[in-house]
Request: fold
Amino acid sequence: MRKAWLSLVTAFLVAGVFAAPSLAQSGPTPEELRRRVERWRALTPERRQELLERYRAFKALPPEQQLRLQRSFRRWKETDPSTRRRLLKRWRHYKGLSPEKKREFQQRWRKWQAMKAEERVRLKNKFREFQELPPDKRRAIIERFRRRNHPPALRPFQRPTAPQRPPMPRPRGRR
Reply:
C-alpha cells in the first residue's frame, strides 16, 4: 500500500512542481515553489523519470477521475497520523487477502454502500451496543447467530464440547 500511496503522492508532487492550475487554484507561493524545486533537484534521475511517467499517467486520466484523486489526496493530507496508520494497516491486510476473500469483501462493501444512510447508522449503533456488552453475553449472541444461520453439520469453528455426564442419582430413602 505504501508504494501505491507513494505513487499517488509523487504524482501530486510532480504536478505541484509543474504548478498545474487544477491542483492549486491560486498557484503556489514563491516559497512553496522553491521547496518543490529543491525536492525535485534532490531526486535521482531515475526517480525523476519515474515521477514524470506517473504524472503523465495522471494527466491521461479523465478530468473527473483526476478530480476524485485530488480530493482524496487533500482528505489524506488532512487526516491525522493515527488514522493514516490505521488505514494503511487495513489496506495492507486487504492486499494480503486471497482473490476469493477480496471478492467476498467487495460484495459486502457494495451491499453496505447500497444501504440507506439510516440503515447504516442503525447497524453501526447496534454494533457499538454489541461491543459494549460483557464478553459472556456477546458469546451467547454469536452462538445464537451461528445456530440460526448455519445448519449443525456446516457450523464453522464450533468448539468441541465436553461430554455431558448423566445426572447423579438421588440417594433413596431421604426426601
Observations:
- Helices lie at 2-17, 30-42, 45-60, 63-78, 81-95, 99-114, 117-132, 135-149.
- Confidence is low (pLDDT under 50) at residues 17-24.
